[in-house]
Amino acid sequence: MSDTDGAAENRGQWSSRWGFILAAAGGAVGLGNIWKFPYITGENGGGYFVLIYLLFILLIGLPIMVAEVLVGRSTQKSPVGAFKSLSSPGSLWAVPGWLGVLTGFIILSYYSVVAGWALHYTWFSMTQGFAGMNADEIGNAFSTLFADGDANIRWHLIFMVLTIGVILGGIQKGVERAARILMPILLVMLLVLLGLAITSDGFGQALEFVFKPDFSKVTAAGVLEALGHSFFTLSLGMGAMITYGSYLKKKEDLVAASGMITILDTVIALVACLVLFPITFTFGLEPQAGPGLVFINLPIAFSQLAGGVFWSTLFFALLVLAALTSAISLLEVVVSTFIDEFKMSRLKATLLCGGTITLFGLPSALSGSPESYFGSGFKEHSAFLFEGETGKNWFDTFDHLASNWFLPIGGLLIALFVAWRVGDKAREEAFTTGSRFARWYGLWLQLLRYVVPVGVIAVILYKIGLI
Ligand code: PHE
Fold first, then answer.
1. Of the four, 128, 175, 205, 292, which is 20 to 30 A from 213 by CA?
2. Which pLDDT value is given to residue 331?
3. How many domains does the chain have?
4. What range does the domain containing 334 cover?
C-alpha cells in the first residue's frame, strides 16, 4: 500500500499487476466456465454456439473488458461513483452503475445455490464416492438433491457465509490472497483432468462436437445466450471489472492485463468442454443433459475410474474454489458501492448486503423443491422474455434475466459511456498510459463505438423477432 495513487481511505490496492490479473481472472473463471458453458454448449448443439461465443468474446467482450478496467483505474471508484465522477453531477449515467449493483445482487443469489451443489458433491465424493453406483442411480442422486429444499438451503447458507468471510478480510488480505492460492491450483487440476480426457475414446467425437459448426442449429435464443454468456463468463456488464480496476495502480498496463484475463477465462472454458464432452461421448451419454451435465455425467465417469473418489473430490473441490473467487467479485461490487456511496464501514456493508442476498437466494434454493415451489408467479409475468419457455422458476427466471438481458444491456451502456461520453483526451491517455498496446487505441475505439452497440442491439432485435 505504499503507492496509494489517491485511492480513498477504507479501500485498498493490489500489491502487483499479477495480483490484479489473478484476482480478476479468479473472479471471471467460475461456475460460468465449468458448469454453465459446457451445458449451454451441449443444449445449443455445440460447434456453431462455441464459434459465435468466441466471436462475441473477441469483438465485444474484450473491448468492454478494457473499457471497464479503464473506468475503474482512472476513477479509483466502484461503478456508481465511477460513472458519476466521469459525467456531470446528477447525470443519468449513474443508472448503469446501479443496474450493475442490482445485477451482481441477483446473480450471486442463485450462483450461491449452484456453488452449494458443488459443495454437496465435494462432501459426497469425500464421504461416499460414486463407486458402485450405476448411471441411473447417479442421475437420480442429482434429481434428489435438486428437489431437496433443506439440503439446498443448508449448502446455500454455508457458501454465502464463506463468501462473506472472505469479503470481510478486506480487498488485499482477503481477495488477493484467496486468488493467489486458488487460481494456479485450479489450472493444474483442470489440466490433469484434460490429460485423462485426451486418452479416452470419446475425445475425437468431443473435438468435433465442440469445434465443428453446424449452422442448421442456429437459433435466436442460442445467439442471445452466447452473447449473454460472453458477458457472464468474463464478469462484464455489471461493474465487476470496474471495481477490480479501481484497485489497480495507475501505471499498470491495463490493456495487457485485460487481454490476459480474457485469454485465461476463455481457455479454461474450452478446457472444461474438452474434459466434459469426451467423457460424455465415451460413456454414450447425452450432451444435452442441461444444468445437471457436470453433476451427472462426470460422476458417472468417476464411478468407473480407478481412484474415482480422489478424482471426483478433486474436481468438485476445484469447482467450489472457482465459484468462491467469482462470488467474492460479485459481492465486492455490491459492498464496495455501499462503502463508497453510503460511507458505510466494510463490516456493516458486507453484513447488510451479504445477508440480503442470502435471503433473496432462498427461493432459488427451493426452486427444485416440489412442496415449496416459489417461482410459479414469475411464469406469467416474465412470459414475454422467454417465448414459449415459460416453465421457468425463480432460479431460471433470474439467471435468464440477469445474464441474457441485464449484462448485455449494462455492457452496452458502459461501452456507449466510454466511447461517446468520456472526453477524447482523457480516454486516450488512460488507454495508452503504461501500455505496450498503445497503438491499438484506434481499433479499440472503433470496436467500442460501432461494433459493440450494433452487435448487442442486433442480437436483442433478432431475439425479439424484429430482424
Ligand atoms: N464470471 C463468473 C463465472 O463465469 C460469474 C460472474 C459474473 C462473476 C458477473 C462476476 C460478475 O462464473
1. 292
2. 94
3. 1
4. 2-463
C-alpha cell at 397: 427466471
Site to probe by mutation for ligand 1, drawn from 186, 235, 399 as the one with most ligand atoms within 8 Å of Cβ, is 235
pLDDT, the chain, mean? 88
Query: Which pLDDT tens digit goes with each residue over 269-320?
Result: 999 999 999 988 988 888 988 888 999 988 988 888 788 888 889 889 888 9
CATH number of the domain encompassing residue 27:
1.20.1740.10
What is d(CA 157, CA 161) in angstroms, rounded to the nearest whole number?
A: 6
Among 64, 294, 330, name the best residue to mutate to test ligand 1's pocket (greatest count of ligand atoms within 8 A of Cβ).
Answer: 330
Averaged over 396-401, what is the pLDDT? 89
Identify the pLDDT of residue 113: 97
177-195 pLDDT per residue, tens: 666 777 777 788 788 889 9
Given a contact cutoff of 8 angstroms between Cβ atoms, the answer to whether 18 and 343 are in contact is: no
**Which residue's C-alpha comes closest to atom 10 of ligand 1?**
235
The whole-number pLDDT of residue 3 equals 39
What's the pLDDT score for residue 169?
76
Supply the residue whose CA is at minimum distance from atom 11 of ligand 1.
235
**Within 6 Å (CB) of ligand 1, which residues are found?**
27-28, 30-33, 107, 232-233, 235, 238, 240, 326, 329-330
Instruction: Work out the average pLDDT over 256-281.
Output: 93
Q: What residues have CB less than 8 Å from 451, skipping those under 6 apart?
A: 59, 60, 63
- Whether residue 173 has pLDDT greater than 70: no
Question: Which atom from ligand 1 is nearest to the alpha carbon of 330?
Answer: 10
pLDDT reported for residue 367: 83
Task: Kindly give the number of the ligand 1 atom that is closest to the alpha carbon of 35.
Answer: 12
In whole angstroms, what is the distance from residue 422 CA to residue 418 CA? 5
